[in-house]
Amino acid sequence: MRAVRIGAVLALTGRDAPMALQAAAGVRAFAAARGGELEIVDHRSDADAAARAVTGLARRCDLLLGPYGSGATRAVAAALEGRPEVLWNHGGAATDPGGARVIDVIGPARSYWAGLADALALAGADIARTAVVHGPTGFGRAVAEGALDSLAAAGRRPLVVVPIDDAGDAATAVAAASRLGAETVVGAGRMEEELALAAAIAAHGLRGALVVCGVAVAVERLGEAVLGWIGPAQWIAGADSEWESRLPAGADYPAAQALAACLVAEEALEAAASPHPERLWPAALGLRTRTLLGPFAVDDRGRQVAHAPLIVRWEPGPIAPVRRVLWRPASEGCGDVDGLRDLHP
């Protein structure tokens, strides 16, 4: 039997490269473990280039993985509109698939702060003195909406919601929140927006609850200023030692997401007994399983319905701050997802 042909469109260079290179490490770990033939196309952090590359790559591959980043993933999905190929989405949390066949392996952007109200309480934060600051992208808005949903479900609301565009920039948005009496700033935006928020939050002596706090770059940029700060994370090291050992040292959740997408795609390929899209698509929709991210199940459009991110907190470590799980979604217990089974190497 020939080796499975795996294709991925990833930004190995440019603005999105830090996270996309992590994703590439996850795909490479899977290909090395399974002996698959791997082709990665560098779209250079250009969404239009990703869209141009994906259709040709799709024709050459059995398993097709999308980009890291919601903007590039949306562009790729648009390029696949009406085509039969299945795209495995590991890095676009705010993506409308339209008429493309997209299988979401990660939780959607609106689920990132699903546990915000509980996490703030566990962290000792005063919700009444919490501001939500978000960027202008679809991802930023969706993450902020999810934060507000979580607070509303707990019968609470933030002190203020500040769009970065309305304020002018991240520093001005944080300053406005601080003047109103905010003690904690909940962020929602692209990495560069969140890093700017983080610097401003630290400068004002506030506490951060940021998407970027889910990855190691937060402590790399801010050091011990992140102690006590929280962030959503699709995965944290130690969750699955068997597959974790196949990832390079220091791998973060983008690597785990891409590896999980490969595992789910492989499971669907086995269930379909064929890489043909007309068999692979229904097999993918019918999967009820578990990866190193947690439970996996999608609806009839391929949208993830079983998994939401953890929330982690930065705490003192022996050398530098470390992430520890503060909150887990109830779905991680799998009570509402039938027929789950683990995927092992």
Task: Give descriptors for this structure.
345 residues, alpha/beta, Rossmann fold, 2 domains, five-stranded parallel sheet, four-stranded parallel sheet, 14 strands, disordered C terminus
- What percentage of residues falls in helices of 4 or more residues? 25-40%
Contiguous uncertain segments of 5+ residues:
333-345
Number of distinct helices: 12
Strand content: 15-25%
User: What's the CATH H-level homologous superfamily of the largest domain?
Assistant: Response regulator
Number of strands: 14
Structure, explained:
The protein has 345 residues and is α/β, with parallel strands linked by helices. The chain has 2 domains: 163 residues, Rossmann fold; 147 residues, 3-Layer(aba) Sandwich (Rossmann fold), CATH 3.40.50. Helix content is 38%, strand content 18%. It has 12 helices and 14 strands. The strands form 4 sheets. It has a 5-stranded parallel beta sheet with strand order 2-1-3-4-5, with helices on both faces. Strand 3, helix 3 and strand 4 form a beta-alpha-beta unit. The longest helix is centred in the last third of the chain and has 20 residues. The radius of gyration is 20 Å and the shape is globular.
Task: Indicate the topology.
Blueprint: E1 5-10, H1 17-34, E2 37-42, H2 47-60, E3 63-65, H3 70-79, E4 86-89, E5 101-104, H4 116-122, E6 130-134, H5 138-153, E7 160-163, H6 164-167, H7 170-179, E8 184-188, H8 191-203, E9 207-209, H9 217-222, E10 230-233, H10 241-244, H11 253-272, H12 277-286, E11 289-291, E12 294-296, E13 310-315, E14 322-327
Parallel strand pairs: 1-2, 1-3, 3-4, 4-5, 6-7, 6-8, 8-9
Antiparallel strand pairs: 10-13, 11-12, 13-14
